[in-house]
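FORM 7B: Structural annotation worksheet

SECTION A. Query
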Amino acid sequence: MIEIALDHCFTGEADRKVADMLSKEDTRRLAQLERQLRRDDPDFAARMGGGNFSVSPTGRPPLPLFILAAVITVTAVVLGVVGWWIATSIVATWAVITLSTAVYRLRRQRAERAYRHS
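SECTION B. Predicted structure
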């Protein structure tokens, strides 16, 4: 099973679904294999993507979602000033949903990072 996960990682097809399919123990073992590979063959690791084969998220905060939420919020304010209240309420709801998604993804990344370091 770990070999299958590693194949996905090397081809760049790894995504959230693959990470969800692995148990916590398998994810831990996969991370251990990745560290060992980076230590034993750094040239190969660099050729395969800089040595970051993990199926877990990149660890970067979802900055584009926060920027998108800010742009949508400004749009809602402009629509409100113009007096288009129905459009304002729709766009404001969209902004809240986008911001909520960004916060959810950020919290989930931080929780997974804390779990991996423990």
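SECTION C. Observations
The radius of gyration is 20 Å. Residues 1-13, 51-57 have pLDDT under 50 and may be disordered.

SECTION D. Sign-off
Analyst initials: ____
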